[in-house]
Amino acid sequence: MPRAPSEKKAEAEKLFNKGMKLTEIAKKLDIPEGTVRSWKNRGKWASESPKNSRCNVANKKAESNATLQKKKRGGQPGNKNSKGVSKGKGNPKPAPPPDRTKHGGFVPVFMDALDEDEQKLVATVPEDTELQFMEQIQLFSIRERRILKAINKYREQNGDVSFADVTRFEDKRAFKDKEEEAEYDRRQKKKVENEEILPGKSYSIQTHTTNKDMIIARLEQELSTVQSKKTKAIEALSKYRMEKAKLESESAGNDVVDDWISAILGEEAEDSE
To answer: In angstroms, how far is CA 138 from the centroid of its own chain?
Structure first.
């Protein structure tokens, strides 16, 4: 005689509390797994079973993960990544920017701090815009000519390589004071007199060569850059002259109109008299 459903339900709950899985309970009691799962959900076995507390832990972890997914953007409570940074003011102790004024190109210039030669140079700078464009074009022309001369010099050289640079190496000796330096010179002179060493100072020279075609290619590239800048300066000068002529034409036209209006007003004044 088969057992009543209530007995199977009670036995299934006992097996579940002992840690048995739902599939194993269903197989042992010879009932569908869905029935056991239904009993478990309606009877809330998981919340009451101490043996299956790991399920509750999993549920809590799931809830915690859901909370983390809903967190706001930016720093979270307890986060110390931005500790020491004042709110809304950035880093109170920022790293200093790199020094870009070593060569003097970006140093602020004050007229009273210029030397005599620099003051003369400033005085020779033309105030007229057209003259400034002309001076710039002339400088580009000079630089263009120098690069062309350098290219021709390398092309006329024999061989495939050319000197790139020369480095001179010389040994130096440091002295504590003038007396020590004088003593060294005295001993060196004595060695020369005894023919232990040769007179004079020795040094070595190291030369570096490079492919002549590479030098020519680099110069030609720089020549193209200079010619491009020269062309832009010429275009700017042409545009400036056109704008200047246009303004002068408009001004002359306005003068004619003013004279015509004055003449009309003068005639009207005579008629009214």
So the answer is: 34
Handedness of CA 233, 238, 240, 241 (dihedral sign): positive
How many angstroms separate the CA atoms of 187 and 179, rounded? 12
| Spatial distance between the Cα atoms of 25 and 37, rounded to a whole number of angstroms | 10
SS3 for 203?
Answer: strand
Report the 10 Å Cβ neighbour count for 208: 9
Residue position matching structure tokens 């140079």: 121
Q: Report which secondary-structure segment, H or E, holds 164.
A: strand 161-170
R_g of the chain computed on alpha carbons: 48
Cα(113)–Cα(119) distance, integer angstroms: 9
Question: Residue 133, Cβ neighbours under 10 Å: how many?
Answer: 20
Q: How many CA atoms lie within 13 A of 216 on its CB side?
A: 13
Look up the pTM and report it.
0.41
Residues 6+ apart with CB under 8 A from 97: none
Backbone angles phi, psi at 67, to 5 degrees: -65, -40
Cβ 254 vs Cβ 262: under 8 Å: no
Six token digits for residue 222:
């720089």
- 226/177 Cα distance (integer angstroms): 52
The 10s digit of each residue's pLDDT in 155-187 is: 888 888 777 778 888 888 888 899 998 998 898
- Considering only CA atoms, which of 10, 22, 7 is closest in space to residue 52? 22
Cα separation, 189 vs 199, whole angstroms? 8
Q: How confident is the model at residue 48 (pLDDT cuts 50, 70, 90)?
A: very low
